[in-house]
User: Fold these one by one.
Assistant:
Number 1:
Amino acid sequence: MHRGETGRYEVTSVDGETVRAFVPSRLPPEPALDLSVLQGPLERALLALGRVDSLATLLPETHLFLYRYVRKEAVLSSQIEGTQSSLSDLLLFELDEAPGVPVDDVVEVSNYVLALEHGLRRLRGGFPLCNRLIREMHAELMTRGRGSDKAPGEFRRSQNWIGGRRPGTARFVPPPVHALSDCMSDLERFFHEQESGLPVLLRAGLAHVQFETIHPFLDGNGRIGRLLITLMLCHERVLQEPLLYLSLYFKRYRDDYYMLLNEVRKSGDWEAWLTFFLDGVAETSQEAVSTAQRLLSLFQEDRARIQQRGRAAGSALRVHQALQERPIISLQKLVDRTNLSFPAVSAGMKILEELGVTQELTGRKRNRLFGYGRYLAILSEGTEPL
């Protein structure tokens, strides 16, 4: 449905240039959403999301899957913003004895993990989904590395713009500073809005666009805006665990994503954006379930192969279990995690190498690192740098 522009323009001056800054109207949209258009995509998305949520009860080690999935999401969401860090870079960065990782990019990815974990921890502690929580997460996201000088944890006090080297050539100019507080207060109220009767999935899709349009921070808006989707679903208990992330979908269909965001602002076609969003929820949910099933099959297959080594399999099985938690790891870290002796860990790792389960990554004789190859390959699918 074409409603016309979903906001108003204000003429403002930025760095001596006159620009038209866009101030979005309050949510929910008016006229109301055409739910008949969205019913099919919504039902498919909810069905797929239910399967994802069931993983929390079906997986024997839910926290292990979350560890892997959160880090994959961190890599993907940061890649959309231009980082070139890989999943292996992040896992190596998290090991103290892994120098040589591209620090600037991987610090940004690591910060994303911290921001997500902080937000979920606060929600589980009973803290509401609100602007204060968003600012706290932004502070975690920008605490170190690139962007740490751009007011971490604070809404901007100067005009920003999207695209173009200067304001006058920008692709889009978000609301001026004086309108920012009202815009974010309206969005905060919409997080908890019930009068429209809109399902939380639709409200999450609407809120994401609104946040990206407001662009309340000097940097990090895209990453916080994508985290907001998962936070809303966890806050409303649609998901028991944060097992849905759309960054791979947004990366895969990047041009469509940006085109539809812009089209909402220009024509008010919320239905086109929400159809795309709901299709992404369904596609991403199906991939999450498939990935979990493939990983479980891999672990079971490798465990069966290890058990065929008879009495020698004991230490190898414990090393294998630890590798499910940390798929790149050193022998000393394995000693700490398994409570086995160094010789026992070494013997267990030798069996895994002989079976082709693990590979030594450094080529060194000391301080060696080992990777769980097939596990890393499955987990890394789609995380190739743009």
Number 2:
Amino acid sequence: MTFELLEGGRNAFPEIIRQIRAADHEITVHMFIWREDRIGTEIAREIIASADRGVKVTIEKDMYAVILEYAEESQRSLCHRPDLRDRFQISMLELLYNRELAAKRLRTSRSSLYTQLKEHPNIVLKDDVRTCDHSKYYIFDRKVMILGGINIEDKEYYSDSKGRVYHDYMIKISDADIVVQFLEKRADPQKESDLFMVNMKEPVSCFELKSNYMELIDGAERELCIMMAYFAPEKDIMSAIKRALHRGVHVRILIPRSANYMDDMNRSAVSKLHKYSKAHSGDYSGRLGTFMTDRMLHAKLLMSERRVIIGSCNINRKAFTKLDELAVSVDNDDSPFAAEIRSSVEEAFQNAECVSTRGKIKYNPVLAAIETAVM
């Protein structure tokens, strides 16, 4: 099967490790967050072992993620040490979201694994740039690739420090021709592709995720499902969702009940949709369903009866205008892959609470405004 859905870290990481061990010639790892924790060190050791047997490895790790790596969980980055500006932003995030960490001294010493990665003759570690690249992917021998929304960190496999189990996706593609197509898209972001879509600043500016999201929403005729970690639709996205409701589309939106960041922003966005729905209840009563899941939904997925988009791109201003992002667009057809996606989406909604009234959506409007402005 060319396409395979890897749901959650418990499915993704074992497959990633299997592919690292099976690689004969080259591996590329392009990652946003890479923590120095159990999963982070295991992946690093597997990569070093592959390099020891002669595999050429290229690792691209964006410094921009250092703020998030130190502001929660293990407070350890495998690759980076925060500078003064980073430390200020880390402190602000801790005060807002993880106050129990605010008084802890940051441990910024280099690990021996980092030194091995940096000095290994078969590994090229590019970790000295801050490009705001939020995409995550692996390529093995230019035959297999794995991409999606899962960072390298324990909480994607076990649970986070607050006990939240993460819900996220990676996609495994086993087709050398498609891998070549992806590499061509990365080299020339403006190159047309029916499968891959990107936000990239270099080598030329190309931000196409928002227009593709809009196209999917405006093309929906019967159903629209949105699963989003950090949901702050701007006016044009919000208008597209409203147009879908007016067309008779049944719209379901799933957000985490308690997000690790930007929780008030998420709640504010769905509250606005509830307010609009109530004001137009005579036009499309019952067509809007907003859901909250107890899992930390980290997935970024849009699905209509025709099409599915899965990747790293949230629905907010920063994702559409500042961050490099990556997503895959596939037909919602009778293929096994599409069936896997539909089954996972339905299970996620069935295990979530449908929030039927706006009064059940509590949030701090000041924090929501700040978070929306930042994102």
Number 3:
Amino acid sequence: MFELLGITPQALTSQVLIGLINGSFYALLSLGLAVIFGLLNVINFTHGAQYMLGAMFTWIGLTQLGGWLDMPEFQLNYFVALLVAPLLVGLLSIVLEKTMLKRLYHLDHLYGLLLTFGLALILEGLFRHWFGVLGNSYPVPEVLEGGLRVSGLFLPYYRLWVVALALIVCFATWYFIERTKLGSLLRAGTENPRLLQALGVNVPLIITLTYGAGCALAAFAGVMAAPVYQVTAVMGSNLIIVVFAVVVIGGMGSIAGAIVTGLGLGVVEGLTKVFYPQASSVSIFVIMILVLLVKPAGLFGRTR
């Protein structure tokens, strides 16, 4: 049937794979946003910049750090960067939360949005000044080079790794928040923080760690994205609007909604490039409009 439309099965499968890869990044980024909004009620516009920081820190560690230290042979391992870069971004985010963001929790959401948007512009401006606007890249780790050939289709190992690891991290995050005791404390802290604090739980610490963890998820996505996309200072701003649309479609604050919608919309976007390429850049926003008309709280959201 697809041959009648001039589309080969290989091309269709290739676009589905590309859609899954993009959807993996959408899911990770929207998951971090959903965690922060769902548990802290903060619209975190620095999320795109934190995604960029994860990619930038990894690129620096893998390609530039040896020269800076005057040790050309030194090179950070990619798998080490998967842990170190999110940790660094998480710690930086904790500092931002303790020094700035926590002062706005009792105010309207708009103040937090404006603050985080301003911080994102500052971070992007600094890295644009230091590293320019041209894209940087680094190669895929040696152990993940190559790929599989299935029915005439080449499946790179690294792309398969990205999809598999994103699914594992998304499921682990959902399980932690929805099925563990600490996750129940996080959710209770958002519903009635005064009662939880009266029971001896350090609610401010939970809030700070939750914000840091949500931002670390964005950095984690950035580390995985760096071998796939060009690393630039504006890579986050080019993606964050799409990710916000994904979060709105899934339901603001819904962990499951962020994961399922992110992956699903990535595939939809990939298929749109096959059947109607002109609409691929707006397909997600068209779906967002339709969903909001039918269910304003989002597919998995609940009316508050």
Number 4:
Amino acid sequence: MSQPNLKLAPPTDTGLRILDTLNSSILCLDSEGCITYVNAAGEALFESSASNLAGRRFDSLLSQVEPSSILSKLALDSIAFTEHEAVITLADGREIIANYSIYPLDGRTTGDEIVLEIRQSEHQAQFAQDELNQLQQQATQQLARGLAHEINNPLGGIRGAAQLLQRALDRPEWTEYTEVILSEVDRLQSLTSKMLVPGSKMQLTQINILEVLEHIRKIILAAEPDRIRIIRDYDPSIPGIMADRDMLIQAFLNIARNAVQAIEDSGEITFKTRVGRQFTIGQITHPLVVQVDITDSGRGIPHDLGETIFLPMITDKPEGSGLGLPIAQEIISRHGGTIHLHSSDCGTTFSTILPMEKT
């Protein structure tokens, strides 16, 4: 039997170029079960180039030990077939969970070619985690509003005292410190006001995420000048995003302070920014997102706290309140984003994902 040649579309063929943008793996098989076409996602799934896959029997890509339902369905002359949550073991031993569909080409019930579409379910665990985060946020919101009410009252007194102190100071260089007090009080009053009103409208403006991180870096280094070293790994090409600046500062500041508390003696924290593409948050896939990773060199988070770390009052730090991370998650969620946790004995990374389109 002669092997068919894989005929890829020329660059001007819009239809096949569109197939290469899909997340689903698309394969065309001839009557002998040999591959005549595979898109870019298929190349990634089977970890082989289109030219190497051309002419190979599809069953050679699957495990010969663990049978797959795909092969039995391909043998049927059905009009079309779809199976959900199928366990597929590949020839190299990798196991994936996927939905797959079989379509006879041009609607033929028997004949030459069929189209096979494989859609991996790799985001399901993250869907479940995002849903859990949403439930946790509802509990956090009630507690945060109560705390915001209690915090809002003394802030007015602090501001008034700072203003009186500023008038009494006879050295201009000292007023720099009172300006910091007044600025932070105003920011906290704005933040608590938003937390007190359910569904209150955020003040969205175009902000530079790197400018926000630099502001936080200065705050952390001012408090821990000798103990903490901050490494910056920024992508300078990240465009501005629509966000509430004060709220975003509070979210990242809470995460950064958590990182500081995780370091017992001295250590380092890394601020890293990258652009992500086709990232799914909840049930929505965003074409572009910005990812901010804050990584510490601390002791890591105990495994039994991993799933509850975003609940209020949950902490493994003696000096921690258990409120910083839940508030950060609630703020990021209001911006349409999410926070993922990766922790080991070598440290912890909080990855904040924010959509780039207007929230």
